[in-house]
């Protein structure tokens, strides 16, 4: 997924931290079919709630 923003052969260090943060935010808030159309961020919060509830 990161290749949508940073082409193969380019160094990540050539990009600003703001741009990397944007990519990270986009990837973590993108619903995924394999996650039953939930986002990685949503599932992370659910798992944290389960851990703290026990």
From TrEMBL:
One term of GO molecular function: transposase activity
Domain of life: Bacteria
InterPro entries xref list: Transposase-Integrase (IPR051917)
GO biological process, any: transposition
GO (cellular component) term, any one: cytosol
Name the UniProt record assigns to this protein: IS30 family transposase
